[in-house]
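Sequence only, no structure available. Ideas?
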Amino acid sequence: ILKQHPAVEQAIIYGSRAKGTHRRGSDIDLTLVGQHLSYDDLLQIRKEFHESLIPYIVDVSIYDDIEDVAVRDHIKQRGQVLYNRSQHVVAEDVGRPNASCP
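Reply:
I predicted one. C-alpha cells follow.
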C-alpha cells in the first residue's frame, strides 16, 4: 500500500505495537512522514488499509499534523520504521540501526 504513494517517504509504527505491549485485537498506530503528503493522500491510504486483508485496524496519521508533543516524543523515542522509501526499508528491517525516526 505504502509503495504506491510516492509522497510517503517513511512510515513509523508507534504505540503498543512498537513497545511490544499490544494485546490481541490491538490496532496498529502508523504515522506517515513526507514533505508532500496531503490530506487526500491520508484519506486514500486509510481507505486502502481498511479495504485490505490486514486483520487489524490501522490508525494512520501524518506525523507533521500531530500536535500532541508527548505523542511526537513517543514516536521519536519508541517508533519503529516500517517503511522507508529512500533506504528501501520494509517491514522485515524494522528496528535495524539505519531505520531511524524523524
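The first helix runs from residue 16 to 19.
Hope that gets you unstuck.
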